[in-house]
User: What shape does this take?
Amino acid sequence: MSDASHAAAAPPSALVDRGERARHLDPRYLIAFLITLVLVAAQLRYNMLGSYDRLLLALGVCVATEALLSVFDRGRLTNLLSAYISGISLTLLVKPQGGALWPFALGGFLAISSKYVLRYRDNHLWNPTNFAVTALLLLAPDRVSVLSHQFGNDVVTNMVIWVFGLIIAARVGVLHITLTYVASFLLLNSVRATVLGLPVLPEIAPITGPMYQLFIFFMITDPRTIVHGRRRQIMVAVLIAVMEMLIRFASDQGWPLPVAFNAAPAFLALALVGPVAKWIDLRRGRAMEGRAIYGTAE
Assistant: This one.
């Protein structure tokens, strides 16, 4: 029997259930598809991995840490998609000096354990990969760098990733965060370049690069660490872009910043702004629950 015949024969309730399941698909599946697409494109087009040791190590540590901590903390094995996404993201982003493997093991452990240790009211505050990469840059700036030009600038490859990324961001419901950040980045850094007398195009060009692709599609839009409410999400995206611009401005002025701030200002901006915004959001949510309980909700 054809698929059409099956669909016709299915009772209306079954069709409704299928539609509901499609609409409520865990966004992590779509994000996992996109990060896999980025990995495959990076390897096939630019041979970015070199060897597969770093991929296997990062994935292995992330998955093992997630499995062990979830069983210890919750008494059951949790969905491992988050560990998969973190493992691939670390493989793509972390570039250790001399081909060392330890940053992938340490980064994987830091990424996943941060979800279980650095929590507030049963919510983790940092995007796991953002926390791990930032920590590595701060702890070992002379040993670890991040993805920059290694992905190349092939238009077709980048267009494929951007098209799929925008579609999936829209499907997950976070497209407004991506677009707000991109618009804020372009505006703020154009103003910064103009004020400092720098050419504008080189200052805004990084937004099209691979590091920013991973940043705007996997970090700043992480469904588990963004705040509630469209307006607040837009506000936080603007604040992150402002913080990044200030970091870049301070670097332009020659202020003595840690190497990590110069290496990945967007990552540091998210690591500074995101957790504070999430903490305030969680406190606000608890306060609103309290007002509702006592009959004083707005």
Notes: The first helix runs from residue 3 to 9. The longest strand covers residues 94-96.
